[in-house]
Amino acid sequence: MADTLGYAASRAVRTAASAAVALPADSYDVAASWRRCVDRYRLDPLSGQPVTTLTGPELTQHREPFEEVLAIVEEEIYQVAEPLSAASFSVSFADMVGLILYYRSDRSLGNYHEVERAGTLWAEGVAGTNGVGTCVVERRPVQVFKDQHFFRHFAHLSCCAAPVMAPDGEMMGVLNFTTGNPDVSEGAFRLACGLVSKVAERLGNQLFRRQFRSNALLASFGASGSLLLAVDDEHNLVGANASARRWLQLSEGALRPRKLWDLFDGDGAALAGEAGRIRLRRNDEETEFSFQGRRPGAAVARAATPKPTKPFKRPEPADVAVEPTVEACLGADPRMAGQLRLLRRVVGSRLPILVLGETGVGKDTLARALHREGDRRDKPFVAFNCAAVPESLIDSELFGYGSGAFTGARREGNPGRLVDADGGTLFLDEIGDMPLALQTRLLRVLETGEVTPLGSGKPRQIDLQVIAATNHDVKSRIAEGAFRADLYHRLAAVVVTLPPLRERTDAAALIRRLFALARADRPLDLSCEALTALLAHPWPGNVRELRYVLQRAALVAEGPEVTVDDLMLDAAVGCAQPASPGSETPDTARGAVALAERRVIEEALVAHDGDVTRSARALKISRATLYRKLRQHQLEVPGRQR
Questions:
Q1: What contacts 535, CB < 8 A, 6 or more positions away?
Q2: For 17-46, what is each residue's pLDDT tens digit?
Q3: CA-CA distance, 103 to 107, in Å (whole number)?
Q4: What domains, with CATH codes, occur in the chain?
Q5: Is 363 exposed, middle or buried (0-12, 13-18, 19+ CB in 10 A)?
Q6: How far apart are CA 249 and CA 252, in angstroms?
Q7: pTM
Q8: pLDDT tens, 259-288?
Q9: CA–CA gap between residue 399 and residue 414 (Å, rounded)
Q10: Rounded to the nearest 5 degrees, what angle is found at the Cα of 195, between the Cα atoms of 517 and 569?
């Protein structure tokens, strides 16, 4: 053991020294975590200790108290999981034991880690220095870069974790981003570190808003963080999020109701005004708050006592970002008009729908929208990614199995995703990657409407709306013998092809809509130059990549608007200067930017009926600059000039 302690101490010194490069200056002490591993937990860094993994029933038991929390966690993670996957990161949520309760990754992109799936235990006393377990101990953001992990066999991972705070101000879980990319740059890792803290804060705020949805909320977003205060009808402060508690120097736990005016100068008249904002003064400093939801003064006459609410239920549609409609998913590109008409006619008809398109174009989003707008909206929507599940498990996960069907099977069996979706919609993502043997079983189910679990001779009748999606050229896969032609014809009753973002004529409108969702927590504008750069970007990751870029930019922007620098796009594209028509081809960076700028100007002029003054104001440039650009792009103003 002495040799182990000596090795660990020596490596801890080296790890702590390297941390100064990889981690922010205010981060936790890596060496302190290593000392805990050696002195307190008596771990051997060379032991190769495997990760502890719970069985399915054990994980279900641990998840039960978090059921309503996980519903909100999943909603929030959904906003960032796909963009992070494109950047080689997986996303997980763990409880205060260090047990991963929710895990999302994309196996097709190489982001899945067997040691980090749901049910794995990452307590520091078991797994050594790591993002989840060390965050639980430190109760602050933690970053573990490659060989800063205590155990050498985790050195291929880089993790960044942040605490998720409950509405009572106490830590209730950990949000963690992990990458196994050995070539991940320090800059990309730092960016993920900043993002995980922001998302964890937003998640905590979402939980807070949900619990106090019957109260008036006061919100302020500034140097002190995102401050949220819950006020009852008598102007008592009944809740404060973690940032507000730090700002007001309030302890964790349930608040003893106290008058808001015990903490701030003023009286109830300030809350009764008609303005949507209020300035509260404390310690000779004024902070501006905005009202969210109902106002306390207006509710006094209607309800003397707010109804008690149960915390952590699944958010109602009004509490989360509005889900896009089928029309919004297809967009205003003229090529999609015919497909939109077709989908409107067949939705709810049980005809299988096949969605084609490159990775990231929004196939999953369209499938969910079709389910919401169909007559099965109150039934289950079950998504199954054929590329994200090991081939050996697809059969049992999709078709299910009976009790004792094979060694290691659950005692009670598993109904399978097909049965889970009975009466509702089954979304088979990446169907082009399904093994041939299972394609035969799936075809039989689709033809007969019956599914027979492994190890069971009892078929079950099921009723499904099937939506499949793939980024493969299915006809090429058929020619190669990798996909059954009869299954293709069975799935392709209705075929929808989503164009890549770089080819969409409605890209500007899509960017504005996604940006409005990304900036939900604070007022923020998108500069004309930033929009121009976004339109010129080639978008290899399509809408998924765009969503990630906008969310990242909204988080890092320090001014009142997002600039080109905030986008962090490729320098050759984002920093290029516009060129005159004909001087560059669309295939060059300068030509792409010039064409994109021309399109933005044309759109502004049309939107403002040719009014140059209003168009210049909307573009955030002077009239003189707009006239110069009109000459540069050889554009004419529609209608009369004013």
A1: 507, 508, 511, 596, 599, 600
A2: 444 334 443 456 788 899 888 888 888 887
A3: 12
A4: 49-209 (3.30.450.40), 214-299 (3.30.450), 326-499 (3.40.50.300), 502-632 (no CATH)
A5: buried
A6: 10
A7: 0.48
A8: 888 888 766 666 655 556 777 877 777 788
A9: 9
A10: 75
